[in-house]
Amino acid sequence: MAGFYGHFTTGVVLGAAYGVAGVWHGHFDWGTVLLAGLTTAIGALTPDLDSDTGLPIRELFGLAGAVFPLFLIPRLRHSGLSLEESLSVLIGAYLFIRYGLATILKHLSVHRGMFHSIPALCISGLAVFDIYQHELVDIRMYLAGGMMLGFLSHLILDEIFAVNLRGIPRLKSSFGTALKLTSPSWKATLFCYALLFLLVGVAVSENKDKDYHAVIAPTSPGRVKSQW
Fold first, then answer.
1. With 0-12 CB in 10 A as exposed, 13-18 as middle and 19+ as buried, what is 104?
2. Which of 46, 77, 83, 162 is the most exposed place for a label (fewest CB within 10 A)?
3. How far is 206 from 140, CA to CA, in rounded Å?
4. Helix, strand, or coil here: 164?
5. What predicted TM-score, i.e. pTM, was given to this entire model?
């Protein structure tokens, strides 16, 4: 299978291309495209959160703990919490992801389980979309798309590396364990789909009355600027 740094390099390249596409076709500002590029790179590593312990995995949890709480900032801005309370939430989110979530996944997940699946791919995008409560839904969709693009690249690379091309091409035992809809564990499968439907419900309930083409504040002609 592709290694940690192979997935990371792929994610960085895709993130750069996704950011350029956001400037040319989406007309987003530089802050939005940089955030989307970073999200794409992180998405390319996210499926390996269920991997065995090691230096790259510790780095991944540290990166996830530092970045993903930042997506809470727009939501916290509208929550009525004080600055100190908001900072406490962000610090708590970092500690939970960096240490609590790492410990939970270590005990409950298995590598190439439901973290490597199509439903998990959808969950990753929906999680970004639901957490990042921005006024412009187009920006939320753009960031969610970056996460899913990176996540998908990881799954595809794992399947490509599951084909042995030395001599007579043959499939390794790991083939088909990334781009899948279910896992051997019905509990893991049930939990994954329950979480997927929950996130879909949150997205629908919070955005059913919003205009997907919100008012644009241009920094230059046609450029969509994120409002803070």
1. exposed
2. 83
3. 13
4. strand
5. 0.81
